[in-house]
Amino acid sequence: MLRNSPPFTRGDEVLPCLNIEDKSPCPLHGEQALSDAFSSISTRRKDHCRRFILLFLLLCILILAVFIAFVLGKYISEWHRNVDKPKEDLWRVNQSTPSPSPSSSSLLSSTSPSTPRLTSPTTTRLPPLPPDTTPFHYARLIPLGAVKNSTLDEVFVPFQSTDDEDWAVASHSSELRMQRDTFLVPLSTSITPVQYEIHMDITRFSDLRQITANVSIHLMSYGNSTDEEIVFHAGPEIRIARIRLRSGDHNVSIISMKNETSKKLYRILLKESLKRAEYVLDLEYTTSICESPDGGVNCYFEPTENVTASKVTSFTTKFEPALARTVFQLTVRHSSSLKVLSNTAVQWTKVDGEGESITHFKQTPPMSSYLLALAAGEFVRLEMFTRRKIPLTIWTFPEDLARASFAAQFAPKMFDQQEEELEVLYPLSKLDMVAARSFSVGAMENWGLVVFDSHTLLQQTEIDDSMAMTVDRHHHEYRIAKIITHEIAHQWFGNLVTMRDWSELWLNEGFASFLVYEMLTARYPHLTEFEYYNRLAILFHKQSGVDRPALVRSLSRESQVEAAFHTTHLYTKGCVVVRMIRDLVSAFDFSAGIKRYIRNNAYGAVTRLDLFASLPVYADHGAENERLDEIIETWLLNEGMPEVTVSRKYDTDGIRVTQRLSRANRYRIFLYDEKGGVDPTTFSYTDNSYNSEEGSRVVRSAVEQEKEFDDTLFDDLPIDYRRTTERKRQRHRKKTRSGSKTRESSDIVVEKRAEDNRKKSRHSPSDRWSIPFSYMFGSIKSTEGQVIRQFWLKNRSISFTDVELSPTAPLLANPEWAYPYRVNYDYANWKMITKLLHDNHNEIPLKSRMQLIVDGEFFLSQSGLPHLYIYLLSYLQSEESLGASLLGLDAVHRLIESFQGSPVLPHLIRYLTPVISRLDRHLLESQSDVELASLWLLDPHRLTRFYQLRCAANLTSCEREEDVRAWFLRGHYSSDMHQKTTALCHYLAVNGGGKEAHRIESELKKATADPILLQLSTCVRDNPKLAETAAKIVVAQRNAAVYDSVLRSDLSQQHYNFEFRRSLWKSIGFLSETDRRFLFSVDEIVKSLLPSWGRIGIHLQFLNRLLSWQDRVSTGVLSKFFSSDSPSL
Predict the structure, then answer these.
(1) pLDDT(667) > 60
(2) 903, 883 Cβ separation under 8 angstroms
(3) 683-685-688 Cα angle (round to 5)
(4) CA-CA distance, 328 to 369, in Å (whole number)?
(5) Residues with Cβ < 8 Å from 60, sequence gap 6 or more?
(6) DSSP classification of residue 1007
C-alpha cells in the first residue's frame, strides 16, 4: 500500500525508513556492518557460566513460545475452519443501496474544456493511486463478532406478514451494495466547506464508464486548529490527479497527500497551519462509475442498433450530516443527445467546438451534500404546474410517458397540499421527478430532483376496465401516491431541515412516513387507517424478537447506517412515535409546533432538542404535568416496545399495572421445564403475590402445560366476588352518569413511591417507558355510561383501587389502541373480554378489537390457555369491520398452520369454519367498493392465505367444478394464479385425482415440467407412483427453498400428503453427502451469513419442544375443548 504512495515527511507514525522508497534499506546500527556491531563478542574469553546462562535463556524462550502456541491454538483452529471460505465471508459487510451514506464522494464533478487546467507552479502532481485496497488489508479495523451461542429463549419464529417496502425509499438494501465497511470518521469543525464549484465531464461515461472533474471547494478556516492538514471524505473510486490550496493570491505548499482507503478519507499534509481565513481547495480527478454500487452512482444501459449505449445515469453524493450549510454550483459537459438534470434549474446551455453541450445550473441553496444529484438520459417530459406556477415535471423514457399520467396529475396536488399544511414555501424554482430503470431503491429525495425507480412511479401497462383490474389499478395508484407523498414531504423534512447526526434519522423518515398517512387520509380513508394498524402489528412482532433496535442509537460504521434504513424499525417506528407526539399535545398544537420547527431551522442541521424546543413543553394526558421531551426520550432510546400487564384483585377492587420489555418467548410455555423451571410470572395472567387464588390456578396450568376445559369457562364470574363490595360500591357511585367520561389520575388512589414521576434527570436506555396509560369500563347503553381513566405509568408497577369498577365487568386498557404498547390481562379479565366480544363486540371500540386480536395471539396462543385464544378468534364470525377481520384472517391462518399435521387440525378447522365463511362474505361484499377491495392487496400474500383457508374449510366457493374441468381440459382458468392452484389442489385432494392425476403424471415426464403441475402433483393422495415421481423432480432442483414451498403449500389435514412427504425425504436421503451439506448445513453456511442464527441444535430443540407441546394440547386441553357440548358459547 505504501509502495505507490507519495513520501511522507511529517505527521507520520511509521518508521522513517518506511517513508522513502528510493533509499537503501536502513542499517540496524547506522553505517556499521552487522558483523561489526557484534564484534566485541568475538574478543571475549571463553566463559562456561555465560554459555550456561545463554542456554538457559534459550530454553525459557522455547517454553514461552510453546505456551503462546497453546494460547493461540483456539484462534488458529477457528481460522483454519474458515480457510475455504471466500474473503468476503471473512469480512462481514452489510450490502445496501446508496442513499444517504456517510462517507462522501461529494467531490464528484467534471472538467469542461472551457475550464482552465491547474497550471500553477505550486500545484502538486500526484502519482496514480494503487488499485483499490481489498477488504482483507484492513479487515482488522472492524472486528468480526463471534457467532452467537444462542439459547432457546433467543430463537424466534419469523413473522409471515410481508412488509410493503415499495414506498419506503429507504429500503436501502441491495445485494450489490456495500462492498466494504468503513468507520464513520467525523471531520474537523475548524474547517468547513461553504461552496462547491463543480465542472463535470460525462461525455465518456457511455463507453469508458468514467467521468473527469474539476472542483473548487471554498473552505472557511476558523483558526483554532494547530493541525497542519486538511481531511475530507472521498469515495473509493476517486483518483485525484492534481491538487492546489490557495487563499487569495497566496498558494499554500502541499507536502503530500495520503488516501486512507479503509476510512474513505484523503489526508493532505501542509507546510503551514491554516489561519483564520477563507481558502480554496482545487482538485482535478477522475472516477469510475457504474462498476461498483459503492460509489453513489446508478446507471442503466440499453442496447441500441449498433452498440450498447447508456440511456440514463444518475448520481447522489454522500455526506456528513452536520455539514448542512453548503451551496453548489454545477456545470456539466455532456453529449448533445442527452438531457441532463440537477437540483436547480438550468441557467444557460451552449455547444463547444467539439459539438458537445455544456449546461450550467443555477446555484443551489444551502443544503447537505448528500442531496446533490445529477441525472442524464434520453428523457421526455410531462410538465405540470403547482398553484404557485412552480413547474413539476415527470421525466421518463419516450415509451413510458403514457404510464406517467397518474403521477403527473397527483404530484402537483400533493405538493400544494403539503405546502399549504406546513405554511412554509418550497424554496426552489422547480421540482423534477425522474423515472429511472433499475434504480437501486424505491426513490431518493434529492432536493429539486427526486429519482424514482420506474416501477414505483409509473402505472402498470396491463390495465383494463374489468372489476378486478379496477381494484388492482386503485391499489397501484395508492402505492404511487404513497411514495410521491413521502418524497415531497422530504423536501421539507430532510432537505430544508436536515438531521445533524445519523442517530437522528427518525427526524427525516419518521415525519415523512407520518405525513404519508396524514396527507392521504381524505383520499384513501380505509387504506391509510388499516395500513397504519397493520404496520403497527408488524412493528410489535418484530420489536418483540431478538432484533429490536432503538430508534435513536449510536452508529459508528457505514454498515450500521445502511442497516438503520429499515422499513419497520425506522420508518414504521418513527411514524408511530411522531403520531404519539401529535396525540399527546393535540393536533392543533402539533401543527403549530411543526411549522415553527421548520421555520426556525430552515437550511440547518438539527437534533431532537430543536424539535422539542418548538413543541409544547408538557404532554396532555391525565392530571399530572409531564415534560414532553422526557416522555418521548424513553420511546426513542429504549430498545424494543413495552408491554403492560393489568392484574385485578376482584374481592378488594384492587388493580396492579406493570410494565416491562415485550418479548415473545416469555409466553411460549414449551420453552420452559415442567419440573419447576417455569417462571410463574411468565405464564400467569395475574400477579401471584397480588391475587394468589387466581394466580396459583394459572401457574398450575402453566406447569402442567394444559388446563382441562370447563364448560363454565365463559360463564359470568361467581357471585362470591360481589358479596362484600357491592354495597361499598353503591355508596361511592354517583347517582347520575351518562355518556363516556374521562377520569384523571386524581380520581383513583395510587399507592406508589413518593419519588415517582418527580425525577427529572436525563433519560438513559433502559427497559422502562413513560407510558400514557388509560383504561375503560362500563357500557354505552347503561345509565352509568363508559368511564375512562388516564394516568402516567413511569415506574415498574403501580397499585391502586377503583371502587367503581365492578368485579363482573371487564377492564379494557389502551382504548382505541391509542398508544403503541401491548396489553396483557389476568385470566379472569381475559375471559370477560372474550365473552363480551361474543355477546356484543360493538361495546368494544373497533381499534381495541384489532389490538385484542394481535395481543391475544401474542399472550395466549402458545400459553397454557390456547383454547381461550381460539375462542377469542371465533368471535370474528360476527365481525362487520373488514380491517379487524383481515387481522383476524392472518391470525387464523397462522394458528391453523401451526397445527398442520396434528390430529386436532380437523376439529380446529371445523370450529373456525364460521369465521372463514364470514371472511368469504367479506371478500364478496368488498367487491362493490374499490377501496375496501384494495385492503386485501396491502399484504401481497393475504389473498393466497385466504384461498388456502377457504379450501381447508371445504367451502363451496373454494372451487367451481366447471372451471376446474375447463383448466384440465384446456389449460385455461378464469381466476388468478393463487386461487387457481389452491382450488385445483383442493379438488385433487378431495376427489383423488382420477384421470387428472394420470394427466399430471404424464406431463411430469416431459423434459420441462410446468411448475404448476409439479405443485399440483403434491396434492394427489394415495398415489405412491405419482408421489415418487414428483419427489424426484423436486429433489433434483437442489434448492431448499423449493422443498419448503411444496411442504407448505396447503393447510388442511386432507391435503397433508404423507405419501409425498415420505417419498421426498427418501429421495433427499439418496443425495450425496456433499449435496446434503450444501442444502442443509446451516451451521457452516447460515452462521456465516446470519451471525444471530446460532447453533442448529438449539433450533432443533425449539422445534422439538414446540411439536411436543402441540401433541400434548391436541390430545389434552384442545381435545376436551372441541368435544365439549358448547365450546363456542
Answers:
(1) yes
(2) no
(3) 85
(4) 9
(5) none
(6) S
Strand order through the sheet with 297-303: 297-303, 308-316, 373-377, 339-342
State the cell numbers at 1026: 405419482
Residues 586 and 563 in one domain: yes
The CATH number of the domain holding residue 456 is 1.10.390.10
198-254 pLDDT tens trace: 999 999 877 778 889 999 999 999 876 667 888 888 877 888 999 999 999 999 999
Contact 237, 295 (CB under 8 A): yes
- Look at residue 660 and tell me if it is in a domain: yes
pLDDT attached to residue 677: 39
Question: Considering the domain boundaries, does residue 840 fall inside one?
Answer: no
Q: State the total domains in the chain.
A: 4
Same domain, 565 and 700: no
Active site includes 420? no
Last residue of a domain, one of 691, 713, 735: 713
| Of residues 655, 653, 684, the one with CA closest to residue 669 | 684
For the ranges 138-152, 487-501, 1041-1055, the lowest mean pLDDT is seen at: 138-152
CA 235 → CA 49, 72, 204, 318, distances in Å?
Answer: 63, 37, 20, 9
Mean pLDDT on 542-547:
90
Ranges of beta strands (E only) in 713-858 are 740-743, 749-751, 771-778, 786-793, 797-801, 812-813, 822-825
Q: Domain check: are 354 and 413 in the same one?
A: no
C-alpha cell at 675: 419440573
Q: What is the largest CA-CA distance in the chain?
A: 117
Q: For residue range 817-876, what is the model confidence (pLDDT) as tens digits? A: 999 999 999 999 999 999 999 999 999 999 999 999 999 999 999 998 999 999 999 999
Nearest to 361 by CA among 109, 589, 186, 169: 109
Same domain, 218 and 241: yes
Q: Are strands 822-825 and 642-649 parallel, antiparallel or unpaired?
A: parallel
- pLDDT band for 958, please (50, 70, 90 cuts): confident
| In-domain check, residue 48 | no
pLDDT band at 613 (very low <50, low <70, confident <90, very high): very high
What residues pair up with 750 in beta bridges, in sequence order?
A: 800
Decide if 211 is inside a domain.
yes
Catalytic residue among 419, 487, 857, 879: 487
Does 431 lie in the same domain as 538? Answer: yes
Q: What are phi and psi of 793, to 5 degrees?
A: -110, 105
pLDDT, the chain, mean = 77
Numbered residues of the known binding site: 486, 490, 509
Contact 369, 195 (CB under 8 A): no
Taking the CA atoms of residue 580, residue 585, residue 587 and residue 590 in that order, the dihedral angle to the nearest 10 degrees is -90
Asked if 301 and 343 touch (Cβ cutoff 8 Å), the reply is: no
Q: Which domain holds residue 996?
A: 955-1051+1057-1094
User: Could you report how far apart the first and last alpha carbons of the chain are, in Å?
Assistant: 78
Examine the domain organization and report whether 483 and 558 are in the same domain. Answer: yes
Give, for 264, the enclosing helix (H) or strand (E).
none
| pLDDT-derived band at 320, boundaries 50, 70, 90 | low
CA 1127 to chain centre: 41
Q: What is the pTM of this model?
A: 0.79
Identify the pLDDT of residue 1070. Answer: 84
For residue 193, the SS3 value is strand
Which residues, other chains included, contact 809 with Cβ-Cβ below 8 Å and sequence gap of 6+? 777, 778, 832
Same-domain check for residues 387 and 483:
yes
Residue type, 1122: F
Inter-residue long-range contacts of 49-53, CB under 8 Å, 24+ positions, other chains counted = none
Strands (E) in 156-264, as ranges, are 191-201, 210-221, 229-233, 238-247, 250-252, 254-260
Segment 1004-1017 shows an average pLDDT of 73
Annotated binding site for Zn(2+): 486, 490, 509
Q: Which of 253, 224, 243, 448 is nearest to 346 (CA)?
A: 448
Q: Return the sign of the alpha-carbon dihedral for residues 476, 481, 487, 493.
A: negative
Q: How confident is the model at residue 478 (pLDDT cuts 50, 70, 90)?
A: very high
